[in-house]
Design brief:
Length: 255
């Protein structure tokens, strides 16, 4: 049996599908309990149904970005594992970057399906799991104390305290994400070489073009959200930027 056949085997589908099914059941239980709690509070059934419908509608397009991540990773990691990671707790930008970094460090030269081995997959899967589980563990251990520390009084006071407490965290996450993106972009910019004072490009220019197009699309969404107050576009910005960026790669490669 080949490596990719093993990564797409029935036992892996059964294990990953069982976990995803369990999480889906929990989600349905919470939806039902939340709906009943809304009725117990005296909320109108029409309003509750409208909230459910609008939430489901606005979840479709952002989920396209997650589906793209599953498709992108399935070529080298099989379908069950990316499906599990991005269905339960994983984040699109996290899973792809950690998987790529782990693949490079195990010596297979990135997420290359032809070079993938079972031992390399085990290492990649282990790192993808270990590096993201700390948020859950820290929440279990320290979240109760954190809530007591910030206190819950009036909504305005609580919002002010949360903003003060989360300021550094937001900046740190933004800085980390910018650093990761810069590292990937820099790897392609680094293919410019200087000879006799002239710069020549020896690498593939397509990734840089896709970054440029995707950045323009995201900038447009940010403009519509922040300047035009069309906050609903935030739900579609990442997925739409990815789709348009990937479409531009297809068009530019034909050109």
């Amino acid at each position: 049996m080949s490596v990719m056949a093993a990564l797409n085997s029935a036992p892996l589908y059964l294990i990953c599908g069982g976990i995803i099914g369990f999480v889906a059941i929990i989600c349905v239980v919470f939806i039902v309990r939340a709906y009943k709690a809304g009725l117990a509070m005296g909320m109108d059934r029409v309003i509750l149904k409208r909230v459910v419908t609008s939430s489901a509608t606005f979840s479709v397009l952002p989920a396209v970005g997650i589906l793209l991540g599953v498709i992108a990773l399935s070529g080298s990691l099989g379908i069950p594992w990316p499906w599990l990671r991005l269905s339960v707790i994983g984040a699109l930008h996290y899973e792809t970057q950690v998987a790529q970094a782990a693949a490079e460090h195990v010596g297979i030269g990135g997420l290359n399906p032809e070079a993938m081995t079972l031992s390399a997959f085990s290492t990649i899967a282990l790192l993808m799991s270990l590096c993201i589980m700390w948020g859950m563990l820290l929440s279990v251990l320290f979240n109760k104390g954190y809530l007591k520390k910030i206190g819950i009084k009036s909504p305005s006071e609580n919002e002010t305290k949360l903003n003060k407490k989360s300021g550094f965290g937001d900046l740190a996450m933004s800085a980390m994400f910018i650093g990761l993106v810069s590292a990937y972009i820099g790897s392609y910019i680094g293919t410019f070489v200087s000879s006799n004072g002239l710069f020549t490009f020896t690498g593939d220019w397509l990734p840089l073009a896709v970054v440029f197009v995707s950045g323009l699309v995201m900038a447009l969404f940010v403009y519509l959200s922040e300047k035009k107050k069309k906050l609903w576009v935030d739900n579609f910005s990442v997925a739409a930027s990815m789709l348009i960026g990937m479409s531009s790669a297809v068009v530019l490669s034909l050109i």
